Amino acid sequence: MAQKGAKVVCPSCGADNLPGTLFCVQCGTYLPSGGPLRTEPLPEQDEANPARPRHDSASQEASQRDLNIEVTVVNTGRVLMLSADREILVGRLDSAHGIFPELDMTVDGGLEEGVSRRHARIYMRDGTCFVEDLDSTNGSFLNGDRITPYLPYAFHDGDVLSFGSLQLKFRITSADDEV
Amino acid sequence: MPKIDPLKDYYATLGIPQDASQDDIRRAYRQLAKLTTHPDSGSGDAEQFQTVRDAYAILSTVESRDAYDRLRQSRGRGTAPLAITGLQSRLELPAMEQEQALYVILDLVPRPDLGDARRKLNLAIVIDRSTSMRDARMQGVKAAAMDVIDALAPDDRLAVIAFSDRAEVVAASATVENKTQFRSALMAIAPGGGTELYQGLSTAISQIRAHVAEDTISHVLLLTDGRTYGDEKLALAAAARVREDGIGISTFGIGEDWNDSFLDDLARQGGGASHYIDSPSKVRDALRNQVRELGALVLHRTSAQVSTAPGVQLIESYRAAPTMEILQADAAGRLTLGGLSAGITVVLALVFSVAMTGTGPRRIARVTIEGEDMVKGAPAALWHDVWVTLRDDPCEGTVPPRLVNTMGRLSIYRLQERAWRALEEGSEEQAALDLESAATRLYDLGYRELGEAAMLEAGRISNGAPPSSKGRKQVRYGTRVLGDVPS
Question: In this structure, are residues B461 and B432 in contact, taking their beta carbons and an 8 Å threshold?
């Protein structure tokens, strides 16, 4: 709750709002969560060497096999298992806006590391994993190269994806191999 | 025991339906009594409290309640045509001299059973037959008009008017006993010529004016795909005039080339709806739904009047559903809501600024909904009071999620409307900024396609180009149906 009587300053555009305002009159930012939940641009960004989209045709034959995706968050060491049978949203939980990412980076310091609430999505096509950046504030990186928003990039076992500055190492193994 | 007055709506006073149980009545009374008898509430609402006590005295005993119900029934005042329920961002506010914001959304739910008795219709379909209405468009419009003919009852009236540079009466206003006659007249319309909308509109009005009646819904359905030339003002004035006579107007803009703010204004003046039809195949659904809604009208020419307590101001007012609109008070301070049809909940969203000191419950506003009850053929007025409890200590409270969702979507709609207005006033920079803000919020909520459309227009404007006609309509009509997420 804001201090009694104080104007609420929008963290996004700096406009003054009446206490109790839900959405900034100037820019529409959700004010109750606008402060702590907002994604701050990181001080410096590696925009050099943009990666090219690559579609791997060699993996076509591996289609429809069950894959195990094991994700290690590099800075915290947290390990997650993902199921590849549906699209995975990478981001930060924001229940007020109905954003419930499968890969929720909140507990890994996602905010400090510049992860947007809807940052990227990961999905499987024909046995290959693809990542697509959702025009996030701080961008997504495949093995250190920034990827273009809204274009799918294939990635493989051992690749490192970064969302903002948060690094995730992906282990992708076929379920059959692992008996 | 107070004297039973059948003209008073004791159920509305207690905010309960007529079929409420005795327990409900007790509960509603206790809640209201708590608000109005609080030691600090001596702020001139003794009269209000007396009304509540009278209502309770009469409804709490079965005998007097029965007597009241019978008297009411005999005067044709059954249950209210509409139920109003409210949701507030806060029920408690910290007392302070400074203004603070309070959000209220009201659900106006027409009684569903009133839709069964279909209203008699007196319609005119006005078809733009200018050269651009060739092929698929004309076929789509004809198919849609055929549907209307099929859907009408034999005692409904219909007129068909076609216009280009001038208007012609394709089928004069008549009851639709002979549907074949209407069908063949419709088929004979051939495209060719310019677009002079006022001609078509005024011809339609003269066709249906003679058949306006208390128990009939008179409405003009206007289908066009182009810009009219210089007669916008005439058309708007005519729409405002005939609204007084009880004739409504709805508009259907097909394709990208028509003037959306003009058709919106025309429908608003005419108390109807404005539709954007991006493909000829969608005109049938839009027209069919509009006619169905007209037939199920429960409250005609509805408006809302908001009166506020001292220290309280209404700062923004919207319709949030079924489609969004920024509501502007007319000269008499009324917000126009148009017609309310059975099965369609209209959601009103109001933003107040409140500057009040002291503690205890306060009535900060009364919202009165007025309209013509189509079932009883009499004027109807219902109201909803907005109460808050002022406290000295800082009060915590969570905002209902549904209210956050609704206001969030409205704020997007508001941003993009402000952008178009800024553009008209020549401030490109502000327009681009507002569209970018709207786009950001759309992405946040996962409406990617709409967000991209808004971003594209923002980009065009900041590069000094005019917005694309299609993009503008996509954004305007796309955001207005984001609508209200039901609880």
Answer: yes
* Total domains present in chain A: 2
Q: Tell me: domain B119-295, CATH 3.40.50.410, correct?
A: yes
Report how far residue B397's alpha carbon sits from residue B90's, in angstroms, rounded to the nearest whole number: 7
According to CATH, the topology of domain B1-79 is Helix Hairpins (1.10.287)
Q: Put residue B417 in one of left, alpha, beta given phi > 0 → left and psi -120 to 50 → alpha.
A: alpha
User: Is residue A44, in this structure, part of any structural domain at all?
Assistant: no
- For residue B432, pLDDT over 60 is answered with yes
Inform me whether the pLDDT recorded for A58 exceeds 50: no
List of chain B residues whose C-beta atoms are within 8 Å of the C-beta of residue A28? 408, 411-412, 414-415, 437-438, 440-441
Whether A28 and B94 lie within 8 Å, measured CB to CB: no
pLDDT on residue B410: 93
Q: Which CATH number fits the domain B81-112+297-397, given the four candidates 3.40.50.2000, 3.20.20.100, 2.160.10.10, 2.60.40.3670?
A: 2.60.40.3670
- Could you please report the per-residue DSSP string of B409-478? HHHHHHHHHHHHHHHHTT-HHHHHHHHHHHHHHHHHTT-HHHHHHHHHHHHHHHTTPPPPHHHHHHHHHH
List of residues 6+ apart from B431 with CB closer than 8 A: B419, B420, B422, B423, B458, B461
Cβ of residue B101 closer than 8 Å to a chain A Cβ? yes
Q: What is the ipTM of this complex?
A: 0.74
Backbone angles phi, psi at A128, to 5 degrees: -115, 145
Residues facing B312 on adjacent strands: B354
Choose between B228 and B172: higher pLDDT. B172
Q: Tens of pLDDT along B283-305?
A: 888 898 899 888 888 888 899 99
pLDDT for A3 equals 44
Same domain, A23 and A105: no
How far apart are the C-alpha atoms of B148 and B286, rounded to whole Å? 11
Q: Are B161 and B124 in contact (CB under 8 A)?
A: yes
Interface residue B405 vs chain A (CB under 8 A): yes
Give the best residue of B316, B441, B445, B482 to mutate against chain A (max A CB count within 10 A).
Answer: B441
Whether residues B100 and A19 touch (CB distance < 8 A) is answered with: yes
- Are A101 and A110 within 8 A, CB to CB? no
User: Region B143-166: what's the mean pLDDT?
Assistant: 91
- The helix/strand count (H/E) of chain A reads as 1, 13
pLDDT in tens, B261-270: 899 988 988 7
> What tokens appear for B192 in the block?
């060719």
Q: pLDDT at position B285, please?
A: 87
> What are the backbone angles phi and psi of residue B168, rounded to the nearest 5°?
-135, 145
B336: closest CA among B235, B248, B411?
B248
On whether any CB of chain A is under 8 Å from the CB of B88, the answer is no
